[in-house]
Structure formats: structure tokens, C-alpha cells
């Protein structure tokens, strides 16, 4: 989803007569924190997929570390309203993850509609890693991955993902269309 939004945002920026050269990354503080955070997530996912670790205390701690690093980045860049909006999206994703044992709640029906599984039963059986199927005990299920997507790539996404993507899109387009005089 984020790749598509990134590409769409750049195209929209060009349509609005913007230019990638207008980006001023020097205004973004500690951008390396984003790369560290997503590297932690990538490592967690790879370890789980390769059955080196299972979701539990260790993955919960690393997930917490990842989100703390992301929120530190957001705090350091709080003067940028679009980065703050992305932070709200991260928060809307973090809440259901941490209230449900370190796993993002996922709607089994949405995974079937998105074409990820042939049946709800298989989706429920395949629930592993950093995801858990929504059930009657799920906290903040409505903030989980409940929306199916079938255009370009198939997956499910959350309200937090939407907010995050809107923030990313507005950030990219605003940077691209910024006047040189504003520098």
C-alpha cells in the first residue's frame, strides 16, 4: 500500500507542477530513526517467517522498540503537520497491536475477499506471526486490518494505514510543490 501511495504521490506532485528537487531533507530531523525502526520490523518478520522465533515476549519488546523509535522521530519533527499525521496513523496501528499481545488483528473475511486465502477457515488456520484473526476477545478490532484491497496487489489494511498514507501523500506533494522562495 505504501509503495503505491509513494508512487501516486510523486505522480500527483508532478501533475501539480512540482519537482522532486524541491525536497529539502535537511528540514527532517533524525530521518535515520525511520530506517532503524523499519529494519527492526523487517528483522522481526524474517525471524518469524523462518520459524527462528515465534510471536511472544521477544517480538513484543522489539515491536515496542520499533514504535518508540518511530514516535521519537515524530516528536523530533512535530513542527511538520504531515509527519504528525503519519504519527497518528502509526498510533492507530500501534494501539490494536499492543492491546492484542503484539499482533495486528485481521478480519478473516477481508483476507478472503482480498484473495489472500481461499476460505475463512484457512485464513484462521494461517493466522501466525505478527497477525491474529479478529475474534470476540479482540480489543479495538475496528482499528485492525479490516479493509480488503484487490487493485494492483492484494492485501488488507487498517484505518491507521489510511491515515498514515494520507500523511505521506500530503508530505510528498507539499514538498514537491513548495516554492523555491520558501527555502
Automatic annotation (TrEMBL):
<keyword id="KW-0472">Membrane</keyword>
<keyword id="KW-0812">Transmembrane</keyword>
<feature type="transmembrane region" description="Helical">
    <location>
        <begin position="58"/>
        <end position="75"/>
    </location>
</feature>
<feature type="transmembrane region" description="Helical">
    <location>
        <begin position="82"/>
        <end position="99"/>
    </location>
</feature>
<dbReference type="Pfam" id="PF17248">
    <property type="entry name" value="DUF5317"/>
</dbReference>
<feature type="transmembrane region" description="Helical">
    <location>
        <begin position="6"/>
        <end position="23"/>
    </location>
</feature>
<keyword id="KW-1133">Transmembrane helix</keyword>
<protein>
    <recommendedName>
        <fullName>DUF5317 domain-containing protein</fullName>
    </recommendedName>
</protein>
<feature type="transmembrane region" description="Helical">
    <location>
        <begin position="30"/>
        <end position="52"/>
    </location>
</feature>
<feature type="transmembrane region" description="Helical">
    <location>
        <begin position="155"/>
        <end position="173"/>
    </location>
</feature>
<dbReference type="InterPro" id="IPR035168">
    <property type="entry name" value="DUF5317"/>
</dbReference>
Amino acid at each position: 500500500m505504501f509503495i503505491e501511495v509513494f508512487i501516486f504521490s510523486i505522480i500527483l506532485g508532478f501533475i501539480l507542477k512540482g519537482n522532486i528537487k524541491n525536497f529539502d531533507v535537511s528540514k527532517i530531523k533524525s530521518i535515520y530513526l525511520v530506517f532503524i525502526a523499519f529494519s527492526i520490523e523487517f528483522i522481526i518478520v524474517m525471524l518469524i517467517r523462518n520459524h527462528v522465533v515465534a510471536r511472544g515476549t521477544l517480538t513484543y519488546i522489539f515491536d515496542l522498540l520499533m514504535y518508540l523509535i518511530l514516535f521519537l522521530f515524530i516528536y523530533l519533527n512535530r513542527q511538520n503537520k504531515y509527519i504528525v499525521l503519519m504519527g497518528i496513523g502509526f498510533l492507530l496501528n500501534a494501539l490494536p497491536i499492543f492491546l492484542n499481545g503484539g499482533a495486528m488483528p485481521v478480519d478473516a473475511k477481508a483476507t478472503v475477499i482480498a484473495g489472500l486465502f481461499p476460505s475463512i477457515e484457512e485464513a484462521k488456520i494461517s493466522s501466525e506471526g505478527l497477525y491474529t484473526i479478529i475474534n470476540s476477545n479482540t480489543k479495538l478490532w475496528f482499528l485492525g486490518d479490516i479493509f480488503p484491497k484487490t487493485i494492483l496487489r492484494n492485501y488488507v489494511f487498517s484505518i491507521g494505514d489510511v491515515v498514515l498514507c494520507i500523511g505521506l501523500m500530503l508530505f510528498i506533494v507539499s514538498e514537491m510543490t513548495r516554492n523555491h522562495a520558501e527555502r
